[in-house]
């Protein structure tokens, strides 16, 4: 039984990433269950995807303290979702902040505070340099796939790079495949 | 041959389940969390199936009713508030009945996550005297939809199929089964006025329906999706996705219990009596209304059964908002008088709140800001509507004073103006909502000589639900090119004499256009035309010239674009989010916002 929570801000691509993980896992013979945020919150709100693997899982939602892995596309969203992390679980976080329009005025949001908090609280923490990742990927639109590459390379997911490539080819055929495959390998090289 | 197992979203499972069951006509109107059902059917490109996005849920249900009269299996899809729009034909249709199986999929939204109400469609089923099928997982939904068609034909009645958000938007491994044998539609036969509703027919059929409802309480007791298991003195009754939460939590509780899963309206009475037998206490866990709970209470009264029923009506379970594994765990631990194991919760730093906002590059931002600027200092009320532009309520725009239901902005504005004629009453409505239920409001305004300014925000798509086509776009759900229905021409034909086309990305021009209609009287229409960022390719992001930026914050403070923020005393534009729409450029007195070099 394995549960992975993906969290970020609407528009960052958590939904696609959770479906990629689910598809790759199904190809490996896992029973998969999960759920994601679709609708109004996608417009710049906090979004969460739940992915759960294994036969004994009933609920698509991960219980509190139930996630083996937390993949966060944004530092504050990692902190927000932390109550779902299992004691001893792993957090993979991008350090690049997305400022809500509301805090753009007051300037009260500091991503460094969030990263510092994560460092103090999470034993298994991997922090990814977001600016560098976007730069290497050439576009922020494939940050989700790059992050998938990071997770696979660190053996945080129950499948290999070949499996991830295969699922990309299945789900993202056409003109976007190449840039996504590139992003997957950029992530794996992190 | 091995069967294929695929990762399917609940809505995809419902769609493929309907295709498997031989559905021939599918209609609907987009609405979270139901939208992907119809989209998935359309994507099959199955020539045997006619698919349409209808202009609204009432039209969708009526088109489908006609097709079901002609003997086809039909499916209609909508969200829960859509059923309110479709309730007029629905209420009557049950009295008339159908020939081909008719499944009306109505997705409920506990929370609510993306809706105006927390209404429970199971109650609508009780009210309309209809069967309701309530799946708890995507894989169950896949099978259940075929069963719903069969029940519809067995009783010649339309049926409701009610998933909730966490079934629609959850996904699971679903094993795809071969198509079921489908019979071809017989075609319409006049059948001695069977399809003409008259008081006499209504009375006759009402008696038949009441008889069927009694029979269904038995029939559904042996329906395999209503399930009873376990033993002991304590019982848990549940249904829908809550069943999954209950099972997840019960795995931890080492006590005997009976578990009743309810998946239908009418209530399976025989099965429930078996469940109640020898119980001391029952806990009912369901979302939205206490439908199962009230049925159990009624049954206990009817059969003189003495036991305690805990749930929403007794205050033991939350009566608003969605259930979670945690909320269900807490209720179960309390029911079994056990201590919930405490785990350390780390005290986090203050987190930024993220209310949903208009996207960077959204054309609505310019439209709202132009109206705000033009009406500055005047007494004005802004009536909003349902769609992305409801997000015009967020600070700093703060341009939505009323929002009620689809199409209501235009009519509510008229009502306010009848009481306070000295107010400038603006109504904002999107393109898809205009065709949905905005039109009658415009006719009403012209006919009754209202004094309002209608701002139609045409972004060339149904944006909030994920960019579905609508009558103004020149394309159908099936992807066919058709003639566009021009909003401008429609408004003109209704008799509005003052119609101005506005480009919302041209802020100074937009402000002038709004000012131009302020002093006029009667019904005025400002037609803001600019594409949604999801349908238009953005251009090169803008950049801040740091030497020119004085850090005055005017740009950040006025339009609330998520791509702009302050850092080290200067404005910064996030190149990932900025689409280069340019709405911010004219706001800077110091000309510090420049077109990027790309």
Structure report:
The complex is a heterodimer of chains A (190) and B (598). By secondary structure, chain A is of the alpha/beta class. Chain A has one domain (2-97, 120-188): Pyruvate-ferredoxin Oxidoreductase, domain 3, CATH 3.40.920.10. Chain A is 42% helix and 22% strand. Chain A is built from eight helices and six strands, in the order βαβββαβααβαααα. Chain A has helices at residues 14-27, 75-81, 101-106, 111-121, 130-137, 143-153, 161-171, 177-188, and strands at 2-9, 32-36, 46-53, 67-72, 85-94, 124-128. A six-stranded mixed β-sheet of chain A has the order 2-3-1-4-5-6, sandwiched between helices. In chain A, α2 links the parallel β4 (67-72) and β5. Chain A starts with a strand and ends with a helix. The mean pLDDT of chain B is 95. In chain B, the strands form six sheets. Chain B has a seven-stranded mixed β-sheet with strand order 3-2-4-5-7-6-12, with helices on both faces. A five-stranded mixed β-sheet of chain B has the order 9-11-10-13-14, with helices on both faces. Chain B is α/β, with parallel strands linked by helices. Chain B has four domains: 5-219, 3-Layer(aba) Sandwich (Rossmann fold); 227-335, Rossmann fold (3-Layer(aba) Sandwich); 363-529, Rossmann fold, CATH 3.40.50; 542-595, 2-Layer Sandwich (Alpha-Beta Plaits), CATH 3.30.70. The chains are: A alpha/beta (190), B alpha/beta (598). At the A-B interface, α1, β2, α2, α3 and α4 of A face β1, β8, α9, α12 and β21 of B.
């Amino acid at each position: 039984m394995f549960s992975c929570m993906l969290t970020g801000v609407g528009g960052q691509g958590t939904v696609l990433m959770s479906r990629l993980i689910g598809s790759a896992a199904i190809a490996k013979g896992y029973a998969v269950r999960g759920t994601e945020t679709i609708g109004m919150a996608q417009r710049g709100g906090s979004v969460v995807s739940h992915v759960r693997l294994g036969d004994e899982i009933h609920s698509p939602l991960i219980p509190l303290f139930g996630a083996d892995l937390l993949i966060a596309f944004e530092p504050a969203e990692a902190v927000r979702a932390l109550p779902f992390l299992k004691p001893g679980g792993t957090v993979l976080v991008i350090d690049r902040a997305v400022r809500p329009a509301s805090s753009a005025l007051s300037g009260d949001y500091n991503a460094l505070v969030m990263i510092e908090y994560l460092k103090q609280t999470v034993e298994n923490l991997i922090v990814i340099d977001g600016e560098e990742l976007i730069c290497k990927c050439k576009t922020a639109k494939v940050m989700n796939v790059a992050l998938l590459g990071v997770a696979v390379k660190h053996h945080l997911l129950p499948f290999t790079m070949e499996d991830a490539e295969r699922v990309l080819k299945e789900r993202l055929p056409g003109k976007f495949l190449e840039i996504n495959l590139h992003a997957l390998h950029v992530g794996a090289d992190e | 041959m091995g069967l294929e197992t695929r990762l399917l979203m609940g809505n995809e499972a419902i769609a493929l389940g309907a295709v498997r069951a031989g559905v021939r006509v599918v209609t609907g109107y987009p609405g979270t969390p139901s939208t992907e059902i119809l989209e998935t059917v359309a994507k099959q490109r199955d020539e045997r199936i006619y698919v349409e996005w209808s202009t609204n849920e009432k039209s969708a249900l009526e088109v489908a009713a006609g097709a079901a009269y002609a003997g086809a299996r039909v499916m209609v899809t909508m969200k829960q508030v859509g059923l309110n729009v479709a309730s007029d034909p629905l209420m009557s249709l049950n009295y008339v009945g159908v020939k081909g199986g008719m499944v009306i999929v109505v997705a409920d939204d506990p929370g609510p996550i993306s809706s105006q109400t927390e209404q429970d469609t199971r109650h609508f089923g009780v009210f309309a005297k209809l069967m309701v099928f309530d799946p708890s997982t995507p894989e169950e939904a896949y099978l259940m939809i075929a069963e719903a068609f069969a029940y519809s034909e067995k009783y010649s009645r339309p049926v409701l199929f009610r998933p909730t958000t966490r079934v629609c938007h959850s996904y699971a491994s679903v094993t795809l089964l071969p198509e079921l044998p489908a019979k071809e539609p017989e075609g319409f036969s006049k059948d001695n006025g069977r399809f003409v509703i008259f008081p006499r027919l209504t009375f006759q059929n009402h008696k038949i329906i009441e008889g069927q409802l009694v029979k269904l309480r038995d029939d559904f007791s042996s329906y395999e999706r209503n399930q009873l298991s376990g033993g002991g003195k304590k019982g848990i009754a549940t249904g829908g996705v809550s069943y999954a939460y209950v099972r997840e939590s019960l795995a931890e509780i080492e006590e005997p219990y009976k578990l009743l899963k309810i998946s239908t309206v009418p209530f399976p009475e025989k099965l429930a009596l078996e469940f109640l037998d020898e119980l001391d206490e029952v806990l009912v866990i369901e979302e939205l209304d206490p439908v199962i709970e009230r049925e159990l209470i009624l049954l206990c009264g009817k059969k003189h059964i003495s036991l305690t029923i805990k749930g929403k009506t007794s205050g033991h379970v939350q009566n608003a908002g969605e259930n979670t594994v945690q909320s269900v765990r807490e209720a179960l631990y309390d029911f079994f008088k056990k201590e919930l194991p405490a785990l350390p919760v780390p005290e986090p730093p203050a987190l930024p709140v993220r209310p949903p906002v208009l996207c960077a590059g959204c054309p609505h931002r310019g439209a709202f800001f132009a109206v705000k600027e033009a009406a500055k200092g005047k007494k004005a009320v802004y009536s909003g509507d349902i769609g992305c532009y409801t997000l015009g309520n967020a600070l700093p725009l703060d341009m939505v004073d009323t929002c009620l239901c689809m199409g209501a902005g235009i009519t509510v504005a008229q009502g306010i103006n009848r009481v306070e004629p000295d107010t400038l009453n603006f109504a904002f409505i999107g393109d898809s909502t205009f065709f949905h239920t905005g039109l009658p409001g415009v006719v009403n305004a012209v006919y009754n000589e209202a004094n309002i300014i209608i701002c139609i925000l045409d972004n060339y798509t149904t944006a909030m639900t994920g960019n579905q086509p609508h009558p103004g776009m020149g394309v159908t759900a099936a992807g066919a090119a058709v003639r566009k229905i021009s909003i401008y021409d429609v408004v003109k034909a209704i008799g509005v004499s003052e119609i101005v086309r506005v480009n919302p990305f041209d802020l100074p021009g937009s402000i002038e256009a709004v000012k131009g209609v302020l002093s006029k009287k009667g019904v005025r229409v400002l037609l803001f035309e600019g594409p949604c960022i999801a349908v238009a390719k953005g251009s090169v992001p803008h950049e801040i010239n740091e030497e020119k930026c004085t850090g005055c914050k005017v740009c950040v403070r006025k339009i609330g674009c998520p791509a702009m923020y302050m850092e080290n005393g200067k404005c910064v534009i996030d190149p990932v989010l900025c689409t280069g729409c340019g709405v911010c450029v004219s706001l800077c007195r110091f000309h510090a916002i420049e077109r990027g070099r790309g």
